[in-house]
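Lab meeting minutes (informal)
Scribe: AK
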Amino acid sequence: MHEFDDDVLDYFIENQGQLFPEDVASSREEAEAFLEDCCAVVVGSVDEVIEYFDEAGVDFDADSIMDASEVFDIGDGRFLIVEG
C-alpha cells in the first residue's frame, strides 16, 4: 500500500523535471504506476528524509540532503523520495 494521494501525484507530475530530463508521467495514473515501480516513499518530516537515506546506507551531507534531486518537498510537511 502506497501513500500517493492526489497532492503527491500532482506535485510529482508538475516537478518531475527536477529528477528526469524527460517527463515520465502525464496523468495521476501514470505517476502512481511509475512511483510504485520506483519504490518511491512519502515521509512526514526532514528528519524522516535523513533517516531514509541513512538506513539506505547513502553517504550524504545532512546540510544539503534536502537539495537532492530525489527529494520532492510536497509543501505540506511531507516529502516524496524517488530513486531515479
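Next up, CB showed the second protein from the same session:
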Amino acid sequence: MNKVRAYFRESYHELVHKVSWPTWQELQSSTMIVLIATIVITALVWGMDALSHLMLTQYYKIIA
C-alpha cells in the first residue's frame, strides 16, 4: 500500500512542480492549428473518395 501511496504522491509532485503547462494563448494557438489541419485532411480524404467514386462509376459504365 505504501508503494501505491508513494506513486500518487510522486505523480502529483511531478504534475504540479515539473510539468510546464501551456499558457491560455499557446493552448488556443495549438487548438486552432489542430482544427485547421483536421479540416484540411478531411477535405483531402473527401476529395480522394469523391474522385475514386467518380472513376469507378465511369469504369463500371464502360464494362457493363
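CB comment: The mean pLDDT is 96.
No objections, moving on.
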